[in-house]
Amino acid sequence: MKHIARKRFGQNFLTDQTVLYDIISAIAPKKDDIMVEIGPGLAAMTSLLLESLDHMHVVELDRDLVARLQKQFSPQRLEVHSADALKFDFTSIPVPEGRKLRVVGNLPYNISSPLLFHLAELAPHVQDQHFMLQKEVVERMVAEPGGKAFGRLSVMLQWRYHMELMFVVPPTAFDPPPRVDSAIVRMIPLAQPLECDQFLLEEVVTKAFTQRRKVIRNCVAGLLTEAELIDAGIDPQARPEAVPTEQFVALANVLKKKRST
């Protein structure tokens, strides 16, 4: 029985075999990898991954698809977690000492940003992540300071990951086809991210980019002074998108010191 894609779950199923094999090649699964796939859908990528893996986990919200997956694969090969990935505790997946998770998925575009932030908390336990996302989102993730695409998503993720846009996937590769191009991104957690309080960094970055057309001095007014910007090596007249990640980290650390005195 054909599964009808559900708009409320952001379902667009990848069907192009060439693209699927390109993704598997980029992931390069190894037999004993501890792999978890988010949103396996109709198992197009799952089936190919299992050709190389002994066992893997999937997190699926759609109960019809959960039942389908459980019928299609034995629990010895595929462990199906019927859950919302935004709320799922990925640390509940057992990982042997000294090993890390590998995370993959065709992420629903309607929840991609909050899901990426949820997964960022998992970064110390992750070897790498390979995701299909809206191309525009991936461009924002990997954007360099100085361009219009550089913003809150860029800073918060670049603080934790090295990221690379691997290749672009056209709408014709999906059923139903989305209205936008997609892209594959590789995310490798940094071994030693700059020391920083995540919540203070989030506070500074959110305030800075809320009014990104203004200069940063005006954007963070009431939070940080012009003198504090200068001490952090930032030109108070610079636009937020011109401020690199490490300087936002410096501002978060200034704020932490300021509030602890």
TrEMBL record:
Protein function: Specifically dimethylates two adjacent adenosines (A1518 and A1519) in the loop of a conserved hairpin near the 3'-end of 16S rRNA in the 30S particle. May play a critical role in biogenesis of 30S subunits.
Keyword Transferase annotated: yes
Positions bound to S-adenosyl-L-methionine: 12, 14, 39, 60, 84, 106
Gene responsible for this protein: rsmA
Classification via SMART domains: rADc (SM00650)
Pfam family membership, one: RrnaAD
Keywords: Cytoplasm, Methyltransferase, RNA-binding, rRNA processing, S-adenosyl-L-methionine, Transferase
Lineage: Bacteria, Pseudomonadati, Pseudomonadota, Betaproteobacteria, Burkholderiales
Family: Belongs to the class I-like SAM-binding methyltransferase superfamily. rRNA adenine N(6)-methyltransferase family. RsmA subfamily.
Name assigned to this protein: Ribosomal RNA small subunit methyltransferase A
Recorded GO MF terms: 16S rRNA (adenine(1518)-N(6)/adenine(1519)-N(6))-dimethyltransferase activity
